Amino acid sequence: MTVTLVFLGKLADLAGAAEREVSAPLDWPQLLAALEPGLQSAIAADTTRIAVDGVLLADKTALHAAAGSEVAFLPPVSGG
Fold it and tell me: Which of 24, 61, 62, 79 is the most exposed place for a label (fewest CB within 10 A)?
């Protein structure tokens, strides 16, 4: 069983793909362990938001995703 990670914007560039599958269940320490160091730093940044199945997390370290869940990473928005 897996969790789908969805990387948006510049995070997709860092990840090398827009999506990635990882083993479920998934919590914050497991997520960080599954990512390479540059991507870990970007995901852990205060400006990056995380949504699980479309619901934004107030505290990303409280992440818990079950099998079949989608975890989306939203970088800060820029532009005018």
Answer: 79
